[in-house]
Amino acid sequence: MATTVSFTVDTAHGPRPVSVEYERTGTGEPLVLLHGIGHHHQAWEPVTRILAAEREVIAVDLPGFGASPGLPDGVPYSLETVPSIFGALFGALGLDRPHVAGNSLGGLFALELGRTELVRSVTALSPAGFWNEPERRYAFATLRAMRRAALALPVPAIERLSRSAAGRTALTSTIYARPGRRSPEAVVAETLALRGATGFHQTLAAGRGVTFTDEVKGIPVTVAWGTRDRILLRRQGVRAKHVLPDARLVRLPGCGHVPMNDDPALVARVILDTSR
């Protein structure tokens, strides 16, 4: 069951309140899961049960996404605020340097948490920030088109499309290589999450000038890329390896941009191997 935690973040204008929705399950060393832009923590459901056999899993709705409200005035949607927001979140949840795994935007955030030594291992699945400018523009245009399509469809049409494999393919084939595996209920929920993502435009705007160029030292780091990623092309994984020479680079055969649904066992194994 999802729970809300509230905490304060220090800014130049004084402390600001932030609230985050999360789900916590399992036992073992803590592992925080961060989803991508426009998604919600339920993106991790295909792997949560596997991970929870060895880890205490905390799946988070990023601020402005899922059920988490947007950031307050004075707290920008930028990579620079990630350490202060998540440092405060970890403190509120009683977490001391948890492991972290992130997908897309969440993968970029996970690497930033590793760079600032707030976590003890990082698994980044198709992380943002290793694009060149044409690739970034392509990814952002694709994401905006997905958002426009989700906003344009009436809810009854989304529900009707989700009932068939062809309809689920139409709704989610940009992010999944095997969209037919996603349940109708999950497809409806994540399409509505994309529609309702209050932090979508601010996050894209903040990401225009972002590239990840720093090493993450002293902890295990894995960068994993789906071979059928249609948003962040897999050659960006090679670029990530040049930036992070000590990281393990893993191919995820047959997986799309959100690989947790396409091959849950493989993704869980990659995360657990890193966090061991």
Q: Could you describe the 3D structure shown?
A:
The chain is of the alpha/beta class. It contains eleven helices and eight strands. The protein has an eight-stranded mixed sheet, sandwiched between helices. The protein starts with a strand and ends with a helix. Keywords: Hydrolase. GO terms for molecular function: hydrolase activity. This is Alpha/beta fold hydrolase. Residues 31-269 form the AB hydrolase-1 domain.
Descriptive tags:
single chain, 276 residues, alpha/beta, 8 strands, 20% strand, globular, AB_hydrolase_fold, AB_hydrolase_1, hydrolase
Biggest sheet character? 8 strands, mixed
Low-confidence stretches: none
Judged by helices, strands and strand pairing, the structural class is alpha/beta
Strand content: 15-25%
Order of helices and strands: EEEHEHEHEHHHHHEHEHH
Rg from alpha-carbon coordinates: 17 Å
Number of helices: 11
Helix content: 40-55%
Number of strands: 8
Q: Please list the strands of the largest sheet in the order they lie side by side.
A: 1-2-4-3-5-6-7-8
Query: What is the global morphology?
Result: globular
What's the pLDDT, averaged over the residues?
Answer: 96
Distance between the termini: 27 Å
How would you summarize the topology of this molecule?
Blueprint: E1 3-11, E2 14-25, E3 29-34, H1 45-52, E4 55-60, H2 82-92, E5 99-103, H3 105-115, E6 121-125, H4 133-152, H5 155-162, H6 165-172, H7 184-195, H8 200-207, E7 221-226, H9 235-243, E8 248-252, H10 259-262, H11 264-275
Parallel strand pairs: 3-4, 3-5, 5-6, 6-7, 7-8
Antiparallel strand pairs: 1-2, 2-4
Helix pairs in contact: 1-11, 4-7, 5-6, 5-7
